[in-house]
């Protein structure tokens, strides 16, 4: 942990979080076919990012000196896999739907970060992707891309 880098990163992320909060307030409060407006998620995520940034900044000032300095190796292979997965997730979201694309993205991410425990990854990925879809579409009356029409589940 590099305290100087973390402190500056916390300040930058705090600014970004506050920009999301203030920018989210200017977005329309309702969307076509949805009771949840487009302003909700940027506002909530901005608050979350700002709070986590304040925590990061606080942690850099708290505590003793860094005892042991060691250089961590960067894992470009894992970063590349996650990055390509995120790009493909965004690209195919409309085509294959939220539940399937989120499930695949989470499975790739979990297996990239920790090999093995496939059943746990399957369970968490499936529960999270369908749970978020159900919560957003049925409880909050929002709209997300559903299942693809060729599956016949829409």
Question: What key phrases describe this protein's structure?
Answer:
single chain; 154 residues; mainly alpha
| Distance between the ends | 47 Å
How big is the Rg? 19 Å
**Biggest sheet details:** none
Helical stretch count?
Answer: 5
N-to-C series of helices and strands:
HHHHH
Are there runs of 5+ residues with pLDDT below 50, and where?
none
Strand element count: 0
Q: Label the overall shape.
A: globular
Q: Helical proportion?
A: 55-70%
State the secondary-structure class. Answer: mainly alpha
Strand content: under 5%
Mean pLDDT, all residues: 78
Question: Overview of this structure, please?
Answer:
Helix content is about 65%, strand content about 0%. It has 5 helices and no strands. The termini are far apart.
Fold blueprint:
Layout: H1 3-24, H2 40-61, H3 76-96, H4 98-113, H5 118-139
Helix pairs in contact: 1-2, 3-4, 4-5
Concise account of the structure shown:
The protein has 154 residues and is mostly helical.
């Amino acid at each position: 942990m590099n305290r100087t880098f973390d402190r500056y990163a916390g300040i930058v992320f705090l600014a970004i979080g506050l920009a999301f909060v203030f920018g989210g307030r200017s977005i329309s409060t309702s969307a076509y076919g949805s009771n949840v407006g487009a302003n909700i998620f940027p506002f909530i995520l901005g608050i979350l990012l700002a709070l986590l940034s304040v925590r990061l900044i606080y942690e850099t000032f708290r505590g003793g000196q860094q005892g042991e300095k060691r250089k961590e190796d960067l894992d470009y292979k894992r970063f590349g896999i996650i990055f390509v997965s995120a790009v493909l997730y965004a690209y195919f979201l409309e085509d294959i739907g939220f539940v399937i694309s989120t499930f695949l993205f989470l499975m790739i991410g979990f297996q990239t970060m920790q090999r093995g425990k496939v059943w746990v990854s399957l369970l968490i990925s499936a529960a999270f992707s369908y749970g978020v879809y159900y919560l957003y579409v049925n409880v909050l009356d929002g709209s997300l891309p559903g299942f693809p029409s060729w599956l016949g589940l829409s």
